[in-house]
Request: fold
Amino acid sequence: MDLTSLVRKSEIEWWIPATGAMRVPGVIYASEPLVLGMDEKVREQVTNVATLPGIQRASYAMPDAHWGYGFPIGGVAAFDPDEGGVVSAGGVGFDISCGVRALHTGLTSEAVQPLTRRLATELSRSVPAGVGSRSRIELDDAELDAMLTRGAQWAVDRGFGFKADLDVIEEHGCMPGADPACVSERARRRQRNEMGTLGSGNHYLEVQRVAEIYDEPAAAAFGLRLDEVLVSIHCGSRGLGHQIGTEFLKEMAIEGPRLGVSVPDRELACAPVHSELGARYLGAMRAGINCALANRQIITHFVRQVFADLFPSSRLVLLYDVSHNTCKLEEHTCGPVRRSLFVHRKGATRALGPGHPDLPEVFREIGQPVLIGGTMGTASYVLVGTRESEARSFSSSCHGAGRAMSRHEALRRWKGSEVIHALGARGIVVKSPSPRGVAEEAPGAYKDVGAVVDAADQAGLSRKVARLEPMACVKG
Amino acid sequence: MPHWEHFAHDADIGVAGVGPTKAEAFREAAIALTAVVADPGAVLAVDTVAIACKAPTDELLFVDWLNALVFEMSVRSMLFSEFSVHITDGELTAEARGERVDPVRHEPAVEIKGATVTALRVEPVAEGWRAQCVVDV
Reply:
């Protein structure tokens, strides 16, 4: 991105002044090298989002921002419905509530290491992954409705996990306001055989060890110990969410202008919150969130079964579950007043600071665990929410590394078998049905996740707690 | 010559088809869609699926066409390699021919979540028509 179009406010904060149709400024949180590495489209998309009706404070981009559709990936924007604020299907994305959850295992890397290969094999057998994989769970209409209404709570009631899991999932595992009646028959059909499946692309199931701790008090509050083994699951709402996104993106593109929403680019497809279309999207999107929460809960159950067989002494306790493609109604301060805003996070993680009333009791004093996925060859991170992120980004932080190159370029540079071999030489086991998929997801195809979390830390969006290194990675 | 191609997008991928008619451009873009997932040359045209779409503009019809294919790929666990496409007055009818996904033979790389309106164009070009958009993977 061309720096001359930006006003530098600090080492880590860049503004796009509000001009023309922009109602608020754009704010990018990133180091200079990260900003230089961003596509010019990020600036354009941050600017476009700033023109939408009802937007509050600023159109934000997180340190891992890259070119999305309508909103940048890594974009955060909040809208006041009483000022004509909108809800945007593109501002949430196709993979509604895609997110990450991390599980403690109670095991050390020394205990797991001799069985890493077998563990990866068993996990890949237990969790359906990749194009064409099918679930062993088939839901009839009534069960699908129950799942869409109650999310992970439904999954726990059906024997997938424990009630205690719900305490450490956003919204306690159930997004209120979901309306299954707003979910089309086609979306339901896409989900019928996909419950408890991982998907493909950048989704993964990873066995990781705590390699470094930066913040001892926060790590202690999160139960993280050096060399402990964790399991991280990254996936979303599968076919159902994709179909909801597809249908509403089109409907908003057609109907948005008729509803009086003037947008500079049809990619910004949106509708007023106070409209029949806006309400219907919120009902469907919230059902999509519940689908993602249920999906990660079911996968958690499969993972627990594998660990129970291979490591009888293990105890897989959920650390936390975050979603990073959502629109949620939240209370925030804008100027002197508290307002109820529809906060869009597209490839951005909610990061609540200490004392926030929505945090589970166990984290209320320290702040929310913020789980940042890396690549299968680098690292993932655990951060903690800060008080100041409320004012800086509506309590939001980055969500991952962000791609540094296209899938084509990755395929041109690497072969899947070579990537698997190279990672194996470093002690990282990769299991995937698709060597081509591994090549497209090669660690080198991503930005430096360390630089991204450093920027998030420096900007006060969240604070670094621990670095997790991969031991085994199951990919679709 | 009708042909397809991919174009770069940060996290996702662009698909494009070029042909002497709109219908042929749409057909070529469908091959590009399959090529996001796997080598179209490795997909046998065994089973046929009928597809119909209707939209107020050529561009939205193109997105509908690709999304109809994404839907059929998803619910049938299929990949498609051959297409016949007809477009009349904003209505598209088509047949897509392919087979069930074989992970070993097809080495499918990634699922397609949906076609977007990003970089969406259906426009006349020197070779006839070009149809393109970014698909989310």
Q: What stands out?
A: Residues 121 and 132 of chain B are 5 Å apart (CA to CA). Chain B touches chain A through 40 residues (CB under 8 Å).
